[in-house]
Structures are given as structure tokens and as C-alpha cells.
């Protein structure tokens, strides 16, 4: 996603009502978010659905990795070799 262009990506809600299709076409073409204003103040952000899905995936991955990162920070780690030996033993895998 490229950098936001204030002249193109900040629009009023009134402008959205009048030019919905143009604004959505621009949003999809650029992949950049559109910031909506109400009374001159930022109020909401519109995102292309593919960009939104990427943000969701990144957030979900971060949540899944957080416990492992805490383990590393706390020193609760072990060698891969030790883990594999234990795993093979527990699952009766030869070698």
C-alpha cells in the first residue's frame, strides 16, 4: 500500500454520498485507504476489502505468535534437537 495522498484520499461524507462510485473506484485502483471527514474532522476510514483481509491476516498471525514470543523473552526455550528427540520418543517414531 502506498502512502496516503491528502488531496486524493481525504474526502467528506457529503462527497462520498455524491460520488460514491468514483471514490470506491479510486480506493480499489490505488489500494490506499480513504479517510472520511465530518465537519472537517477525520471520522472514518474506508479500506479495499483485499487490504482489509491482509490486515486481518497479519493481526491473526501476530496473535498466534505472541505466546511463543513471550516464551522466548522469558527464556522458556529448548533446542530443536532436544524437542525432536522427545517428539519422536513420545510418538514412537524410529530414528
Textual characterization of the structure:
It is a single chain. The protein is α+β, with helices and mostly antiparallel strands and 95 residues long. It contains 5 helices and 3 strands. The protein is elongated and about 70 Å long. The termini are far apart.
Could you name the key traits of this structure?
95 residues, alpha+beta, YefM-like fold, 5 helices, 60% helix, elongated
CATH architecture group name of the domain at 6-47? 3-Layer(aba) Sandwich
* CA gyration radius, whole angstroms: 24 Å
Summed over residues and divided by their number, the pLDDT gives a mean of 93
Describe the main β-sheet briefly. Answer: 3 strands, mixed
Distance between the termini: 48 Å
CATH class of the domain at 6-47: Alpha Beta
> Beta-sheet strand percentage?
5-15%
Parts with pLDDT < 50 across at least 5 consecutive residues: none
Quantity of strands, as a count: 3
H/E topology pattern: HEHHEEHH
User: Main sheet: which strands, in order across?
Assistant: 1-2-3
How do the strands and helices of this protein lay out in sequence?
Elements: H1 6-9, E1 10-12, H2 13-18, H3 20-30, E2 34-38, E3 41-46, H4 49-73, H5 80-90
Parallel strand pairs: 1-2
Antiparallel strand pairs: 2-3
Compose a concise summary of this entry.
The chain has 95 residues and is an alpha+beta fold. It has helices spanning 6-9, 13-18, 20-30, 49-73, 80-90, and strands at residues 10-12, 34-38, 41-46.
